Amino acid sequence: MTKLSNSLAAADIAHSLHPYTNARAHERNGPIIMARGAGVHVYDSEGKEYIEGLAGLWSVAVGFSEPRLAEAAARQMAELPFYHTFAGKANEPAIRLAEKLVEMTPDPLTRVFFTNSGSEANDTVVKLVWFMMNAQGRPKKKKFLSRHKGYHGITVASGSLTGLPVNHRDFDLPAIPVVHLTCPHHWRFGHPGESEAAFTARLLREAEETILAEDPDTIAAFIGEPVMGAGGVIVPPEGYWEGIEALCRRYDILIVADEVINGFGRLGTTFGCERMGFTPDILVTSKQLTSSYMPLAAVVMTEAIYDVIADHSDKLGTLGHGFTASGHPVATAVGLENLKIIEERDLVGNAARLAPSFQNGLRAFADLPLVGEVRGMGLIAAIELVADKATKRSFDPLGRVGARAAAFAAEEGLICRALGDTLALCPPLIVTDADIARIIARMGRAITRTGDWAK
Ligand code: PLP
């Protein structure tokens, strides 16, 4: 086993370039090679067991060993392993999944376009919105509003929508017209003494002033995650989304809910927009759509948007957009089975039921000297570590302490994600009370060890 993993590690170091990895540090440290998964656990090539506290990449809702998904994939592989959806071709799983998504998403959403990834889905949103504006004779109405710390992917357009410096720096992004607004994180961006309500009012004023300064006739859409994930798990304050929705309606700006992390139960409701109290014109979903067993994402839009696009495709002779694997039969068959499991086992209800013990358990760490803030909602949470609790001063360099804490957590048998010095948790939706208790205990030990190490 050791020899095999050693040779695998050497081969990885020799031949791979890893996403979101310091390549030189990786050459020194080597990979953690995951060999198998079972339920909420994964096992590395040395046989060490971890609770996957981030559900892989915020995505493996049904856990790591669901035989029904393997069977659904195998059945579809045997029946029709691939067919495309170009030029009017269709396949049953893609049709059924689109129908299911229309049934599950909020009422005004009626039409589905499939892509392989969340990034491609958000690129598709940008292109379809531009196509729509051109079709309507509004060629100036092209800008997107997004937020600092929002995460919408990494392709040229979706990476431009993302509001994280690491995704822009030296990649020549943003490369499309996008304006990033203040991140709705009261603890970090509220002024001293500013109440949450005053903070919300300030952000909504800023949004309106930006819209007016840019000219509403140039702004096509507002995109946001109902609760931000990769930016550090940020739950916007009460009234924020309602205010954004009202502004968008006033100035004829489309609302895009990026539900790639929130969708299918993460916040204890089927979609995050339901929990946050707004209705989007376009909803983007991926990750928990297939529990990441297959790459798949979906853009779900209103009939009004569809109608403009449909008419324009009629005028031009086609819709000149689509991926080889749009509506891939194996991916959509797995998605369909995965959504059935989420419904049958009431995993959305499970998230809602376990949210209080998960959130309250983690909030018990808020008093530790190293902990600046514990935040979250449903089954997604984060613990932000700071150098100085009173001033909220971050560690310098940012990320070193977070990486150490994540390494301690892994030693304790818990995988979490260090986003700078913020430790994110987003466990599979199948977690039990006992799993939650284990996650909290292991996280507690990791933070205590980090505190000792940082002294
Ligand atoms: N949107 C959100 C909210 C995400 O969290 C992610 C990925 O983490 C994406 C989009 C991009 O998805 P992908 O990595 O599949 O391209």
UniProtKB/TrEMBL annotation:
**GO BP term, pick one:** gamma-aminobutyric acid metabolic process
* The UniProt record lists the keyword Acetylation: no
Tell me the keywords, alphabetical order.
Aminotransferase, Pyridoxal phosphate, Pyruvate, Transferase
Record's superkingdom?
A: Bacteria
- The record lists the membrane-crossing segments as none
Give the required cofactors: pyridoxal 5'-phosphate
GO MF terms here are: adenosylmethionine-8-amino-7-oxononanoate transaminase activity; pyridoxal phosphate binding
Q: State the PROSITE patterns in the record.
A: AA_TRANSFER_CLASS_3 (PS00600)
Can you tell me which family this protein belongs to?
Answer: Belongs to the class-III pyridoxal-phosphate-dependent aminotransferase family.
Q: What is this protein called?
A: 4-aminobutyrate---pyruvate transaminase
- Annotated organism of origin: Cereibacter ovatus
